[in-house]
Structures are given as C-alpha cells and as structure tokens.
Amino acid sequence: MIDASLTFSMGCFALALMINLWRVIVARGVPERVLALDTMVINVIALTMLYGIYAGTAVYFEATLMFAMTGFISTVAYAKFMLRGSLIE
Amino acid sequence: MELAAEILIAALMVISGVFGLIGSFGLLKLPDLMTRLHAPTKATTLGVGGVLIASMIHFAIFADHISFHELLITLFLLLTAPITAHFIAKSHIHREVRADELPPPAGGAAWGCFERTGDGRRIEVPGERQG
To answer: Which of A54-68, B31-45, B93-107, B113-127 has the lowest mean pLDDT?
Structure first.
C-alpha cells in the first residue's frame, strides 16, 4: 500500500515539476518566473523526502533542509534584485 | 498498529500529492500573478507538509527512530512561504503596476514599492524626516 501511494505521490509531484517548468519558460514577467522557480524548489523538496521514504534512509533530511534554505535565500535575493537593482548596497 | 500506520501514511501521501499537483496547476490556470501567488504558497506548502508528516510517521513506526528534522523543515517552509510571497508581490507591484493605479494607503504614507522613482528622485513622503 505504501509503495502504491508512494508511486502516485511521486508521479503527482513530477507532473507538478513539469507544469512549473512550463511556467518558467512561458511567463509574462520576471516575478512570475521567480514564483515558478520557488514552486519548483518546494516540489523538489517534497520529491526528495518521498525518495528518502522509498530508500529507507534518513540521509535525505539534511539535504532537504539545506535545499529549503538555499531556495528561500535565492528567492529573496532575486526579489531584492528586482526591487533595488543590486543585492548589497 | 502497523496496518493503521500504513493506512495513515498512504492517505497522507496521496492527499499531499494531490495538493501539490493542485498548487502547480493553479500556477498554470489562474489569470495573473497576484492570483497565481495563492496556489503555490498555500496548496503546495500544505502538500509538502503532508509529505513531511508522512515521512515522520514512517520513520517512527518502521525504522524505530523518531526524528524531528521533518518538523524543522515544515516549520521552516511555513515560515518562509509568506515571506517569499510578500517579496514577489512587492517586486510585481514595483515592476508592473504604476503608482497612480493604486489606491492611496492609509495614514498618509506612500507605497513602499514606489518610494524611490526610476530617475533616482525620492517621492516626498509626508511626515518623513529629511536626512
């Protein structure tokens, strides 16, 4: 049962990643691209956790935490660059 | 006990997968950025939270070690999703909405996104101390 639901959930998040990639390619402005990239980061976090359940190891938690922090900081840096034109003033 | 945990984990994973898909589909379906912000910041965050809780229950029941890393990641995501949404909305207003399209904010202040104009001139903000 866990295997079947794991496959279903991984398929859902993989499809979501494809949708996000489409939104990154076809977007009307830079903030939309940044939003799609941020959603991609969140979906990759979910996919990594699901792979951690599939592999049965707890190694992936640290990687996920690092990836969450990197995604947040990069989104904030993008937004700051769009707002001010530079990162460090 | 194991069967109940298995049912709970499977249900959580299916529900969170559907929520993640709905969040990304909303990104495709909704008309403009201010409405599109709702889908990923709410539905996808809930989906990731479900996956993390499922993982926590799975490792607590089947691998006999309780880890709080997942709670840490959930907390981090729940804290950062509103902040990124706010930043993206602010940069959207800054780049693609003109100042006279917006209603004036309360209290006589100016919109923070338009505080500095494109040619480097500052818009006068009432009550602001001149440096």
So the answer is: B113-127
A3 min Cα distance to partner chain B (Å):
8
Size of interface A-B (CB pairs under 8 A): 160
For chain B, the average pLDDT equals 81
Our count of domains for chain B comes to 1
Please indicate, yes or no, if residue B34 is contained in any of the structural domains.
Answer: yes
The answer to whether residue A44 neighbours chain B at the CB level (below 8 Å) is: no
Top-level class of domain A2-84? mainly alpha
Q: Check residue B119 and report its DSSP letter.
A: T
**Is residue B125 a part of any domain in this protein?**
no
For residue A88, give how far its alpha carbon lies from the nearest alpha carbon of chain B (Å): 17
Question: Has residue B29 been placed in a domain?
Answer: yes
What is the per-residue DSSP string for chain A? -HHHHHHHHHHHHHHHHHHHHHHHHS-SSHHHHHHHHHHHHHHHHHHHHHHHHHHT-STHHHHHHHHHHHHHHHHHHHHHHHHHS-S--
Quote the pLDDT of residue B22.
Answer: 92
> What is the predicted pLDDT for the residue at B94?
82
pLDDT digit string, tens, across residues B32-74: 888 888 888 889 999 999 999 998 888 888 887 777 878 888 8
ipTM confidence score: 0.87
In which domain, by residue range, is B8 found?
2-97
B74 Cα to chain A: minimum distance (Å): 10
Judging contacts by C-beta atoms under 8 Å, the chain B residues touching residue A35 are: 27, 33, 36-37, 40, 88
